[in-house]
Amino acid sequence: xxxxxxxxxxxxxxxxxxxxxxxxxxxxxxxxxxxxxxxxxxxxxxxxxxxxxxxxxxxxxxxxxxxxxxxxxxxxxxxxxxxxxxxxxxxxxxxxxxxxxxxxxxxxxxxxxxxxxxxxxxxxxxxxxxxxxxxxxxxxxxxxxxxxxxxxxxxxxxxxxxxxxxxxxxxxxxxxxxxxxxxxxxxxxxxxxxxxxxxxxxxxxxxxxxxxxxxxxxxxxxxxxxxxxxxxxxxxxxxxxxxxxxxxxxxxxxxxxxxxxxxxxxxxxxxxxxxxxxxxxxxxxxxxxxxxxxxxxxxxxxxxxxxxxxxxxxxxxxxxxxxxxxxxxxxxxxxxxxxxxxxxxxxxxxxxxxxxxxxxxxxxxxxxxxxxxxxxxxxxxxxxxxxxxxxxxxxxxxxxxxxxxxxxxxxx
Length: 412
Ligand SMILES: Nc1ncnc2c1ncn2[C@@H]1O[C@H](COP(=O)(O)OP(=O)(O)OP(=O)(O)O)[C@@H](O)[C@H]1O
Ligand SMILES: N[C@@H](CCO)C(=O)O
Description:
Domain GHMP kinase N-terminal: 126-210
GO molecular function: ATP binding; homoserine kinase activity
Pfam family, one: GHMP_kinases_N
Largest sheet: 8 strands, mixed
CATH architecture of the largest domain: 2-Layer Sandwich
Number of domains: 2
Region (Disordered): 1-23
Bound molecules: adenosine-5'-triphosphate, L-homoserine
EC number: 2.7.1.39
Number of helices: 13
Radius of gyration: 21 Å
CATH class of the largest domain: Alpha Beta
Number of strands: 12
Helix content: 25-40%
């Protein structure tokens, strides 16, 4: 088994995003928005030859097998709304076979695990494979290679604030890169991901691994305007018939649109995810946020985030400092109506009531609650589950590790 670890993180990407009221399909549409004003060139000689290369490579070799493994992520960690993400040990895994002797033109998809009943098996509708096709088409390869079959095993629950969509997008980015043998550098992979999921926190942490901070460059007014181009205009729903060409080409992402840095993470800090058994869509949770904030609330969060990123790297961790630094006034207060009992749940465990507790927050857009602790994990989880139970909500508890490696492609 040969492991192709992606290139080490060196730089950064970015854009700003307004995702409220959008579905993932619409977000993909945005991915395809001509942000540079110059889309991929329509199938040129270069594109055709890239496609022929991929097919020729497939045809001349035996079946190729590889895995794409992407961790889940918890973003925000209290005050770091849309800024920080933590990569954790639940994984989305694609087991991919490219068999030149198989005749299927479109990839076949099979799912097990979380979301198996909901995830589309049509590769032109599925978030991961559509993302892969976007990467291929932006890089001169007009279609999937023949004979691709993908077995998905997913441990990341949908719509719970654990970055399932970010993981699906990163899996698609790496899938496209691997199928096209593109070998894009990590920064360029991230550019493509940021065209789809416009807040960088989840996708960056999923790609890079560990505890990561990121920001996006502002789009120009023309680029911002262009983001309303509908999906149907930029990426056809169905593949063309043999010999026909795709319609309009998707725009390539601008280069270096996001920027990131990886922080340290003290090895003593343990992570507990308390996962309520209901979904909150990120789009809905984003639409609950105000358009404007008071200076007081922004300063409240900025002060805490500045302290938090260093405090979580220090050994031994300072319980009081971290607990205070994980307070938030930018997103959690506005999402409380989406998660029954949220203020009470967040107040249910403190370093005083549960020695060893470092902090508690909403994971991503919720409804999962993330607790950081030095010990006492079971008691912390039990108390939070009991609080949810008062609202007639069952929870699953996961004791997780920080996943330091980030997304990987493993050749078999
Ligand atoms: N493995 C997957 N395959 C296909 N689609 C997926 C996959 N994972 C997530 N999705 C899509 O993403 C949706 C969930 O995304 P959403 O942004 O609402 O929540 P999340 O990413 O789990 O949470 P958060 O962004 O708060 O961390 C699912 O309903 C599904 O449409
Ligand atoms: N930072 C994002 C993460 C969800 O994907 C939010 O809280 O809306």
